[in-house]
Amino acid sequence: MRECERDGASGRKFGDGRVLVLGLGNSLLADDGVGVQAIRQLREQPAEATLELIDGGTMNFSLLQYLEDAAAMIVIDAANFHARPGTVRVFEGDEMDRIVAGSRHNSVHEAGLGDLMAMARLKDCLPERRALITVQPQRIDWGEALSEPVARALPGICERARLLAERWAA
Q: For residue 1, is it within any domain?
């Protein structure tokens, strides 16, 4: 694995300003695939910020290499927060860390994401700017199509990711 680049005086990460957008989920399980669908949609739309769009699927530790090189990170996933289906929530920085590290997982991918973030933290490569964009699923069951409420939320999820990346790049 590559080591993180460091600024010798401050020890802080520096890079080319790329924002990693990591879409998580299983595209064969309806709303669970919203992160993957978001990456597909983001690939079709121009953005002001430099985005590295990664289909993270159902998570594995080979994704660490992308965190190592990222100036910032946005994760998109379906998560159960007992809200109305299609409700979108955004958690930034420490708030994201608390959600991901919480003992009761709202998303099937949080355990893996928490471990991935812990590995990046141990290597001192966890992007300082990070956010989790979640949507309340209606249905996690066999099927490739998103439910109607989650499909309606998808453009807004992508717009939030773009705006967040642009704000960080400014």
A: no
Considering the domain boundaries, does residue 4 fall inside one?
no
Domain hosting 51: range is 19-169
Residue 151 domain flag? yes
How many domains does the structure of the chain reveal?
A: 1
For the chain, the average pLDDT equals 86
What single-letter amino acid sits at 123?
A: K
Confidence of residue 11 (pLDDT cuts 50, 70, 90): very low
Residue 62 has pLDDT above 50, yes or no: yes
d(CA 120, CA 67) in angstroms, rounded, equals 7
Strand partners, 77: 134
- Categorize the per-residue pLDDT at 111 as very low, low, confident or very high, splitting at 50, 70 and 90: low
Distance CA 137, CA 144 (A): 14
Closest CA to 152 of 142, 138, 162: 138
